[in-house]
Design a protein that fits this description.
The chain is mainly beta. It has strands at residues 9-14, 25-29, 34-37, 49-51, 60-64, 71-75, 88-91, 97-99, 103-109, 118-129. The chain starts with 8 loop residues before the first strand and ends with a strand.
């Protein structure tokens, strides 16, 4: 079997205008290969990754996969409480994350962050919290 990607980033096509969505989580439509933003009710098995390279509809976007071992920036929801290192982050609206103890757990904060901004995190395999 050949190794196709050693980096944990894949290129997809934007299913909508994602130009303002750097650091947001996406799902992927298997039939069309397009990326769309997650919602607060997206289940763990549907989370595909985090947008890195962003663009408008039908243009290429880069998605960082959950297995990435580096530190990445994710966008905190505009209504999220401030986060500090060690806080668990779960999916919020429009691909963003929020500090939480229930929902779809996707990352752990490694730095401080405030609502509406990119926050440094370590991605985890998405799981459902309590």
């Amino acid at each position: 079997m050949a190794i196709y990607h050693q980096m944990q980033v894949v290129r997809l096509t934007a299913g909508a205008d994602l130009s303002a969505c750097e650091g947001c989580f996406v799902t992927v439509d298997g039939a069309t290969g397009t990326a769309t933003l997650t919602t607060g009710s997206t289940t763990a098995d549907k989370v595909y990754g985090v947008l890195d390279g962003v663009d408008v509809k039908d243009r290429p976007v880069d998605v960082i996969l959950p297995g990435c071992s580096g530190i990445v920036g994710v966008k905190l929801h505009s209504g999220s409480a401030a986060v500090v290192p060690g806080d668990r982050l779960v999916l919020g609206a429009n691909g963003t994350v929020t500090k939480g103890s229930s929902g779809t757990f996707v990352a752990v904060a490694v730095g401080s962050g405030t609502a509406g901004n990119l926050t440094p995190v370590r991605l985890v395999q998405p799981t459902t919290l309590g």
